[in-house]
Amino acid sequence: MTDMPERNQMNQTALFKIDGDLSGAIRRAWEATGLLKRVTASTRVALKPNFTYPFYKRGVTTSPAVIREAVKILREQTPHISIVETDGGYGSWKVRDAFAGHGIDGLVREFGIKAVNLCDEPRGSIQFLSRGQIHHLPLPRRLLHETDLFITLPVPKIHCMTGLSLAYKNQWGCIPDIMRLRRHYIFNDAIVAINQALKPEVLGDGTYFLDESGPMEGAEVPMDLIIAATNAGSFDRYVSELMGYPWRKVLHLRRAVELGDMPARLEDIRFNIPPAQARTRTFRLNRTFRNYIALAGFKSRFVTWLGYESWFGRVVLHGILYAFAGKPVKPQPTAEH
């Protein structure tokens, strides 16, 4: 990824209530973090929403309204805008369905932007150290070398595997491989390495947060917030405090601090509103029976292979799981669609 002129390396966040003016909240947040000053007519922008579901679901996927207003504001300054995402993990859905289910096709026509399936893009790679070994990870060349400003649009959630899903976690969906779950056992090092390579700025869709079990099921919590940050580390440290969830319980955030990518102290982040002041409840993880079974695979490469790739796992183990916990519900559009 090319460096933008006068890139602001400061750890900074900005939180604004929407209060019926979504466009104004986004614009104020970006003005506070200095992002709009760094966008010129030639800036190539990539927006990465959180599409963990093929239709809009409050507290689960990035709101179509937030995406539209973000594109509209950026389009005032540059025509080079792409919305990027990959196909759902384990072949759960196609990104074209998620684009349609979140109104992205209409934005392409309205603003002349691009919608890009990163699984179809040429690939480069990054390397990083994990568990004493060098690992290589594919990433789209578009994001590594053909983007000037990468903006991630996460939805703050409790996550049944990682504890929290904030800005760092959203870049897991940049890996152009539907079997990215094979790499869950090195997730903590891999996700930091991805963010170090892509250097995202953050526009958090805080219209709704998700509590209890996430990332696709849980209690949607109306928050009516927009939260911007100059980097993923600042966002995750700030929002974990806002949610009242101890960041030290989140292994990839602990790893980010160890690698110097996330500030451990709030005093090292500039913000307009203290996160505790914006807190309206304490978010807590409440894993289900199915979550505990999946967690074993998340931590072990062998268990992942056994459960998801071997015949025994796909036929026998999944059959036993469905008998006790029920089959996964096929994604359906909500009443809002």
Layout of helices and strands, plus pairs?
Blueprint: E1 13-17, H1 22-33, E2 45-49, H2 64-75, E3 81-85, H3 95-101, H4 104-111, E4 114-117, E5 123-130, E6 133-140, H5 141-145, E7 149-153, E8 157-159, E9 163-165, H6 167-170, H7 187-198, E10 201-211, E11 219-229, H8 232-243, H9 251-258, H10 275-278, H11 289-299, H12 301-309, H13 311-325
Parallel strand pairs: 2-3, 2-7, 3-4, 7-10
Antiparallel strand pairs: 1-11, 5-6, 8-9, 10-11
Helix pairs in contact: 1-2, 7-9, 11-12, 12-13
Question: Would you mind describing this structure in some detail?
Answer:
Helix 1 (22-33) packs across helix 2, helix 7 packs across helix 9 (251-258) and helix 12 (301-309) packs across helix 13. This protein has a single domain, classed as LarA, N-terminal domain (Rossmann fold). The strands form 3 sheets. Strands 1-11-10-7-2-3-4 form a 7-stranded mixed sheet, with helices on both faces. A two-stranded antiparallel ribbon has the order 5-6. The model is unreliable at 1-8 (pLDDT under 50). The chain has 337 residues and is of the alpha/beta class. The protein contains 13 helices and 11 strands.
